Amino acid sequence: MSSILEVQNVVKQYGDYTALNNVSLSVPKGSIYGLLGPNGAGKTSLIRIINQITMPDSGSILLDGEPLQINHIGHIGYMPEERGLYKTMKVGEQCLYLAQLKGLSKTEAKKQLEYWFEKLNIQGWWNKKIQELSKGMAQKVQFIVTVLHKPKLLILDEPFSGFDPVNANIIKDEIIELNKNGTSIIFSTHRMESVEEMCDYIALIHKSNKLLDGKINDIKKKFRTNTYQVGILSTNVEGLMYDLSQKFTMKQTYFKSLNDELKLEINLGNHTPNELLHTLSQRGQITHFVENIPTINDIFIKTVTNQ
Amino acid sequence: MNKLLLIIKREFIAKVRNKSFIVMTFLSPVLFIGIGVFVGYLSQMKSEQKKIAIHDETGKFVSKFKTDSEYKFINLSTLDIKVIKDSIIKEHYDGLLQIPNISNNLLLAKKIEYISNESPSVMFVSKLENTIAKELTNENFKAQELDTVKINKAKADVNISLAKATGEASVKGLNELKIGIGGAFGYLIMMFIVIYGNMVMRSVIEEKTTRIIEVIISSVKPFQLMMGKIIGTSLAGIIQFLIWAFLGLTALFILSSVFGLQVGATSGLEAEKAMKTAHAVIGSDIKLVLTELFDLPIATIIIAFIIYFIGGYFLYSSFYAAIGAAVDNETDSQQFLLPIIMPLILGVYIGFFTVMNDPHGTIATTFSFIPLTSPIVMLMRIPFGVPWWQIMLSILILFGTFFLVVWFASKIYRIGILMYGKKPSWKEMYKWLRY
């Protein structure tokens, strides 16, 4: 699959401080790509370089196979983490202005605006000033401004912050729909649930370095611990423990359930799940059997703290 | 449409639509005239009549003081001086003029006293002095056996009338008029630079605090945004000035038609005829002033004002924009603003003190070339007539400096708009120049 965005060996320094240290990554076309990292990791620096707000000291960026150039601005939609609109300007005028700055003609911008205003059900806001709107309402306008010019690549920095759950869901659905229609999306966020839910790919940046990147499932497989959570009702607990200890390592664990069963976390070692199931079924009633799949949150914390 | 044009348009509309702009544009001329009229009215107003007691032991002077609407002179020469002094303390009288009985006039002139609770005005004291001096002089003449009638006849009264080489009559006080007009325009340009420069700064800070800046510079270059902002705001300033100029000229034409002066037809002959048929001396004086006004290089002044406004404003607003980008809020901007205001104030001082005395002297000429002061100083010099090459050179230097400054300013601007949270030092801003 070809990439919508290719970041190659990008270095950015501010004085003595290195914001990005030889970072390379590739965002596949049509994907939702999660850009993760703690505060101050260099995410915003990278996003600003992609948006041509700043220039890299070295390295190159390809958008859709071409080196980044000024007219690519119209192909990228960027919603910064710190949202901002002119407070005293009317919603309609403001959107028109920002769309025209992205290179849309006035008539085209108007057409798109009408479409989006109707879609998000805010037709009545055209002549309202931003300062008259609530924060959540302003966020909707901000989202429209970001996607109005039909960008190929959408960069959203913490897209759900500031939305109430209802509006966050509306925006999430819009993002997914845009993605289905071919827009590639980069998410920069700390909110791991939304990454888990929406992203196909992730990259983790920490202290100016990229620590890992790739398909989310591949990364999860890499971080797999081969452990299973098991619940079993047994009359002979000692016998069961003896049998298990012959082949596996285990420890007691806790999870919510309806029964008062024995709860274990069992590491398979180099045995198969079937062998474990076999051993368990001989000694009691299995109520729970599930693989411990690492969450992005686990991976994030593990990778960052291991550094 | 070109992005720069879009930004200019937005900034212009944002400024012009602002309520304070509309109010300023139409209210401030009214306010100015209103204040002028009010001050004029106040100075015309008669204050309460003051009662002045006179204790004249010689009896020679008391009759020379004539009571008028301002001062009432009361002869209290027969009363004891202590009693009068008491009544002054009790504020029955505003003042006491005490003339002792000394026959030697030279000595007497040194011994006259004026006693009051409040210190009298300079005008009043000199009025008293003149009255007594006149009487004493007359006595001296008589003592020397001089014929006062002949002396009065021999006195010459000279009133030099001013004229230009072209032969037109001129009024006295023309230089004052030129200084007034030059000063007004110079001051106006300073006000415009400060007001509109501040607008640029505030608008930069606004974009920073509302955080829209990142959205915009992901669409346009910071330099485009800065220039668009500066140009758009300057257009608003020019519009405001043109409206004022239009209102002012209209008022001038109305005034001139009221006094029956035909603009453009003020040939020497007609002016002379007008002089001869003048209904009143005052009327003809006003006519002359108006004629002089129309003879001033008004077109040059207005064009020069616009050019110097653009140049000076561009120069200064680049500083303002850089400062706006460097700080997070207006309070932090103060320490950076002082060095900007200083040359402007210097320009106004030089204009009012040096240009008035010697419009084409070394100091005035030098400062009309230095770009930070030239918009003000040169504009004050123009009514006195400045050679074309000087104006051209000064404008050239001004715009050359602007391009240099805007280059530096854009570097600070570019970095500053993305910096939050800390107040930068001069050293830090210098570092930004080299990023």
From TrEMBL, chain A:
Signal sequence region: none
Keyword ATP-binding: yes
The keyword ATP-binding appears for this protein: yes
Superkingdom of the organism of origin: Bacteria
Domain ABC transporter as annotated: residue spans: 5-232
UniProt keyword annotations, A-Z: ATP-binding, Nodulation, Nucleotide-binding, Transport
InterPro entries noted in UniProt: AAA+_ATPase, ABC_transporter-like_ATP-bd, ABC_transporter-like_CS, ABC_transporter_ATP-binding, DrrA1/2-like_C, P-loop_NTPase
Alphabetical list of SMART domains matching this protein: AAA (SM00382)
Molecular function GO labels: ATP binding; ATP hydrolysis activity
Gene3D superfamilies: P-loop containing nucleotide triphosphate hydrolases
Annotated coiled-coil segments of the chain: none
Similarity-based family: Belongs to the ABC transporter superfamily.
Protein name as it appears in the record: ABC-2 type transport system ATP-binding protein
From TrEMBL, chain B:
Pfam families for the chain: ABC2_membrane_3
One cellular component (GO) term of this entry: plasma membrane
Domain of life of the native organism: Bacteria
Membrane disposition: Multi-pass membrane protein
Domain ABC-2 type transporter transmembrane: 19-410
Keywords per UniProt: Cell membrane, Membrane, Transmembrane, Transmembrane helix
Identification of the protein by name: ABC-2 type transport system permease protein
Naturally occurring in which organism (per UniProt): Flavobacterium croceum DSM 17960
Lineage: Bacteria, Pseudomonadati, Bacteroidota, Flavobacteriia, Flavobacteriales
